[in-house]
Amino acid sequence: MDAAAYRDYQRESESWLKKGRRNLLSSMVRQSGGGRKDLKLLEVGAGVGQNVPALLEFGQVDVVEISDVGLEALRKIGGIRHVMGDPIPFDLKETYDVIVAMDVVEHIEDDREALNWMAQHLKPGGFLFATVPAYQWLFSEHDVALHHFRRYTARQLKRAFPPSVEVVRCGYFNSVLFPVAASVRLSKKVVRRSSKERPARKQSGLMPRPVNALFQSVLDSEVWAIRKGLDLPFGLSVYCLAKRPPGQF
C-alpha cells in the first residue's frame, strides 16, 4: 500500500470496521490462548498499530511492517517489544504462541509461502489467525488502490494454509452488512468502467457517528455469534484460525 492508504488507516483506527475486526481478533486470541495473559505474540503487517492495544492485553508483542509510515507509527506505541521492518519471509529465530495477519496475505503475491513462514514460527500448540477480503467477484478499485493480488472464499483461504497446521475455524465476517456493501462496490465497478480512467481510490470506512454506532453494534453481534460457534454463511471478510499440533517440532 502507498503512504496515503496508511494515513487513511490512522484516521479510521476507531471506525466501526476496525473496532469490529479488533473485537473478532480479541475473541479468537482469548479462546485459543485459554485466557492466558503471558502469551508471546507476533503481528505480521501491523500497519499503523491499530491492533496492538488489543494484542498487548494477552502478553508480549512483536510486530512486522514494511511501510515507513507504519513503522514510524509503531515505534511511537509503548509496550511493543520488537518492531521489524523486513518483508517476509526473512530470517527470524523467534517462535510465538500466537501469530496474527489481519488483511495481509492478499497483499503478498505468494500467499502460501507467507502463511508457511508464519506457521514455521509458531510454537508447538501455537495458533495462527488470518483475515482477508472475501470474493474475487468483488475485486474493485478499492483493491487496486490497496495493492491486493486477490480476494478469497473461505475454502480458498483454508487451502492456502500449509499442511503443518490444522485449521480449526474458518468462516465469514461482516455478514449482515454484506448485501449493502456488495451492492455499493459492484455499482462503483460499473460506473468506473463507463467513465474515464482515473486513479484507483481506497473506499473510506468513516461514517457519521450514529451510523458508525449502528454498524459497530452489528459487528459486535457477529463476534458474539462466532464466539458461540455459529458459522456465518457469507461476508465481506474471511477469517481462519489454525493450530500447530502440540507434538510437532
Low-confidence stretches: none
Annotated CATH topology: Rossmann fold
CATH top level class name: Alpha Beta
Please trace the helix and strand order, writing H or E for each element: HHEHEHEEHEHHEHHE
Strand elements, count: 7
The rounded Rg comes to 17 Å
Sheet of most strands: 7 strands, mixed
Pfam family, one: Methyltransf_23
Protein name: Methyltransferase
InterPro entries: SAM-dependent_MTases_sf
Blueprint of the fold:
Blueprint lengths: L2 H9 L4 H17 L6 E6 L7 H5 L2 E6 L3 H7 L5 E5 L11 E7 L8 H10 L1 E12 L7 H5 L8 H7 L5 E8 L4 H17 L14 H19 L9 E7 L6
Parallel strand pairs: 1-2, 1-4, 2-3, 4-5
Antiparallel strand pairs: 5-7, 6-7
Helix pairs in contact: 2-9
Would you give an account of this structure?
The protein is an alpha/beta fold. It has a single domain, classed as Vaccinia Virus protein VP39 (Rossmann fold, 3-Layer(aba) Sandwich). The chain contains nine helices and seven strands, in the order ααβαβαββαβααβααβ. The protein has helices at residues 3-11, 16-32, 52-56, 68-74, 111-120, 141-145, 154-160, 178-194, 209-227, and strands at residues 39-44, 59-64, 80-84, 96-102, 122-133, 166-173, 237-243. The chain has a seven-stranded mixed beta sheet, sandwiched between helices. Strand 2 (59-64), helix 4 (68-74) and strand 3 form a beta-alpha-beta unit. The protein is globular and about 45 Å long. The mean pLDDT is 88.
